[in-house]
């Protein structure tokens, strides 16, 4: 970390390349807005002979395009700061929270969705801020899943992380903890025996990492993954679809197959967010759907991630995929498979659709939950028997406004 490359001069010197003076000026201007920091390890993966098209270079070295702010670009497109009940916690979904326990990363990804915060060393969360976050989780019984993120939680010391995991682990209603980290990709030596020994004490613990290109699966990163998997930690991967880096069906398939070989389950493929300075990385959503078309059916089901668009404005992740239902009648559903075979599924002649009043103790399905009471949310509410809502209307609907005026 101490030897991380932070200036264009050092980058040129170490890579043995020369940028034209004029370009260099723009790079430096970009770095004043969005700083750079690359580990020597990650930089060493760059193929110097074709560095400008290199996926590692593109993810770590600034582009002059970053200063072009598009009309729809936002500093906080996912409204993570707005959906934050206490500093460092984003509570968006009913049963889980995102807990920012570190505000720094081993490598500053150029495509970071939290670009607004990159290099903002002033706001490394203090022990007090983390205690407040833990307090919020303790006082919010709906939270059964805590996702430690940041920044990168593995940039904390083993002791600090051990303390957080211990405190969160003491909360009865927290059933599972997850950590999101890119260290296996950009600083694999962080996955030490000591770290893994400590993590093992905190099961059930899941880890998601962030590989974007097969090139990143080196001997060192594979060793890091092996240590984590051997510690019994289920591993997932979240990739970001990036123009010029990995926007290719064949590449994504190779990446996911290699991940599975290393015991990492592809979890999400993200559509690139509408954060400031990322326009040059964005692809149409159609590119992602095309990629999914070439994965589902063509390779093992567990090598296929869910492709998601994280809704601008804080709507959360929306899964997107090709359509497989071709048509639908009362008795038959017409479906197509990955080969283009069109088939029919005959709906059952009889199906006893039971009225559900959420009285699980009186139901024959034998779910023994003492506490099955939950609120229906969103579309689930429209489908349910136990809630009388028949429509959802956006706030500010003009027609409803006229009705209210008349009343
Ligand atoms: C992605 C995300 C989660 C976790 O979502 P999963 O679909 O459960 O992986 C939780 N909170 C926030 C704010 C997120 O962005």
Would you give an account of this structure?
The protein is α/β, with parallel strands linked by helices and 407 residues long. Among the domains are: 231 residues, TIM Barrel; 40 residues, no CATH class. Helices cover 28% and strands 15% of the residues. The protein has 13 helices and twelve strands. The strands form two sheets. The protein has a nine-stranded mixed sheet. A three-stranded antiparallel sheet has the order 10-11-12, with no helix packed on it. Strand 7, helix 11 and strand 8 form a beta-alpha-beta unit. It is globular. It starts with 7 loop residues before the first helix and ends with a helix. 31% of the residues are buried. The mean pLDDT is 94. The structure holds pyridoxal-5'-phosphate. Belongs to the radical SAM superfamily. KamA family. InterPro entries: Aldolase_TIM (IPR013785), LAM_C_dom (IPR025895), Lys_aminomutase/Glu_NH3_mut (IPR003739), Lysine_aminomutase (IPR022459), rSAM (IPR007197), rSAM_sf (IPR058240). Pfam families: LAM_C, Radical_SAM.
Q: Which distinct ligands sit in these coordinates? A: pyridoxal-5'-phosphate
Label the structural class. Answer: alpha/beta
Strand order of the largest sheet: 1-2-3-4-5-6-7-8-9
H/E element sequence: HHHHEEHEHEHHEHEHEHEEEEEHH
Could you say which overall geometry the principal axes of the C-alpha atoms support? globular
The radius of gyration over CA amounts to 24 Å
> Which sheet architecture does the biggest sheet show?
9 strands, mixed
- Helical segment tally? 13
Name the CATH superfamily classification of the domain at 89-319.
Answer: Aldolase class I
**Percentage beta strand:** 15-25%
Average of the residue pLDDT scores = 94
At the third CATH level, what is the topology name of the domain at 89-319? Answer: TIM Barrel
Low-confidence stretches: none
- State the distance separating the first and last CA atoms: 65 Å
Q: What is the helix content?
A: 25-40%
């Amino acid at each position: 970390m101490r030897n991380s490359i932070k200036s264009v001069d050092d980058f040129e010197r170490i890579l043995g390349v020369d940028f034209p003076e004029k370009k260099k000026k723009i790079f430096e201007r970009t770095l004043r807005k969005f700083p750079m920091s690359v580990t020597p390890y990650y930089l060493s993966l760059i193929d110097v002979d074709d560095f400008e098209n290199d996926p590692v270079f593109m993810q770590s070295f600034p582009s002059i395009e970053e200063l072009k702010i598009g009309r729809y670009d936002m500093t906080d497109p996912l409204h993570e700061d707005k959906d934050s009940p206490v500093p460092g916690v984003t509570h968006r979904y009913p049963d889980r929270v995102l807990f920012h326990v570190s505000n720094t990363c081993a490598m500053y990804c150029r495509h970071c969705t939290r670009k607004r915060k990159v290099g903002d060393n002033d706001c490394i969360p203090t022990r007090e801020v983390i205690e407040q976050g833990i307090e919020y989780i303790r006082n919010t019984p709906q939270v059964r899943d805590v996702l430690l993120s940041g920044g990168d939680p593995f940039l904390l010391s083993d002791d600090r992380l051990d303390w957080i995991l211990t405190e969160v682990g003491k909360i009865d209603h927290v059933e599972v903890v997850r950590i999101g980290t890119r260290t296996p990709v950009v600083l694999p030596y962080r996955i030490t025996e000591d770290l893994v020994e400590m993590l093992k004490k905190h099961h059930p613990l899941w880890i998601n990492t962030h590989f974007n290109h097969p090139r990143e699966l080196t001997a060192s990163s594979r060793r890091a993954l092996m240590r984590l998997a051997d510690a019994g930690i289920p591993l997932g991967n979240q990739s970001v679809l990036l123009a010029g880096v990995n926007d290719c069906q064949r590449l994504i398939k190779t990446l996911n197959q290699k991940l599975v070989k290393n015991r990492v389950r592809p979890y999400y493929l993200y559509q690139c967010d509408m954060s400031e300075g990322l326009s040059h990385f964005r692809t149409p959503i159609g590119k992602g759907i095309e990629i999914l078309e070439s994965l589902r059916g063509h390779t093992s089901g567990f090598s296929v991630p869910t492709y998601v668009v994280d809704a601008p404005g804080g709507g959360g992740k929306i899964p997107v995929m090709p359509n497989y239902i071709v048509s639908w009648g009362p008795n038959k559903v017409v479906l197509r498979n990955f080969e283009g075979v069109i088939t029919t599924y005959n709906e059952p002649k009889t199906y006893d659709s039971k009225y559900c009043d959420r009285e699980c103790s009186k139901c024959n399905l034998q779910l023994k939950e003492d506490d099955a009471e939950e609120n229906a949310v969103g579309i689930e509410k429209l489908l349910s028997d136990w809630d009388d809502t028949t429509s959802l209307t956006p706030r500010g609907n003009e027609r409803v406004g006229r009705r209210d005026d008349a009343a």
